[in-house]
Amino acid sequence: MTLFTEATAVAAKDLRIEARGHRIAGSVLPLAGALIVAFAVVAAPDPARTAQTVPALGWITVVFATVLALKRAHDAESEDGALEGLLLAPVRRSAIYLGKVLALAAELLVVQAVLLVAAAVFAGPPSVAGITAAILGTVGLAAVGALFGLMTESAHARGATLPLLMLPAAAPVPVFAIKAGEGHAGLWLPLILLFDAGVLAVGALAARHVVED
Amino acid sequence: MRRARPAPLTGKRVLGRATVAALAASTLTSVLIAPAGDPVERLSYLQAPLAVVAFAGSAVVLIASVAHLRTGSASADRLAAAAAETGFAFALLAALVGALWSQAAEHRWWTSDPLAGTIAVLAAVYGGYLAIRRLQHNPDRTARWAAVAGLAAFPAVAGVYASIAAWRPVTLEAQLTRPAPTAAAIACLVLGTAAFAVGFLHLTGARVQLGNLEERARRDAWASVRHRPAPRVVPGRARPGVGARA
User: Fold this and answer.
1) Secondary structure of A51-96 in the HEC alphabet?
2) Chain A residues within 8 A of B152 when measuring between CB atoms
3) Which of A13, A132, B59, B230 has the lowest tally of Cβ within 10 angstroms?
4) B158 lies in which domain range?
């Protein structure tokens, strides 16, 4: 089996759990929707301010959603020693990491799609560069989140530690994506791509040190 | 009465004295020689060198982390931890100086300046790295995870740095209206950076030494526990320390 086949198998397993458990639909999507609506209503008296702030608020919402999705994924995997079963399977550690990235990115892209529709309602339709930046940025966020999610999988203080580790490491993603949506996409989109490639490479190479026992 | 013989000049002492001398020289040149339209601008001769050295510290963490993952060297792990602690202190100092400058110049503690944002992210990255070192009780796993975190943090630091470089064309107009930095200003910045770099080396070296002593103390403690003779138990009598108060 190639690395890609193994990674897609892990991702398919995670997505199957999501399809049966409705973690995203049940908790993450309502949270994302509530946040964006609340922010948009608060900024409603000034349409110009709404248009300026909605992209940033959308990204804050996606980051919150990432933390929540990782927490729910951890809860699902800690039941009945499911993670131990995965580690016993004959798949490479890097494939486990890449599979988690694929699954998390797919889940977050659903959240992004809902948020983009909400943003279009409240602040006008996003540009093509904005949508591309949202997709690439979501992959970067998933790459960072999956790495630290695996790292804190067995830690006692996971709830507090995961955001503490993930948020600074993922800080460039919202900055690059928002700037790409505002203009100068030719400059910011390659930066997001470089960031994604860098984190994915680090994660794939370091996965065996993180997912060891 | 005999005078105490002065302690021999070790590498650590030389570095310590060099740090004090370099910082004094840097402060004096910033105050007396460096050109500044407003006295508050002199803070930039502190902030920029602090930020540069804090960034250089993240490169030290990266290199030491790679070395630890490749070789499993405990020394590399201690160097990464020491550089992260010192770098965190430098990043916080740079943020503090920036806030003071902003307050004096614009009457608010925070301005959306690319350098200020970068320093804040760098301090947060260092904070996360140091948090992970306190996450586990298993020293081997802590070292391994910290090394991975040191690696994963690098794209963030590089990305934020790239964002500064990319931001620059936006503020080009503002840059063009400013006078070009004079040779005296550049010399002061270089001297300041060199002074803080020597300080960084000194503090990191001292922290590594402290880490070595901690490791030795931990090993000695384990050895003493292992070699302690088992308490003699006499049948029919209470074991020493058990039920002594009863």
Assistant:
1) HHHHHHHHHHHHHHHHHHHHHHHHHHHHHHHHHHHHHHCCCCHHHH
2) 144, 147-148, 169, 199, 202-203, 206
3) B230
4) 42-169+186-223
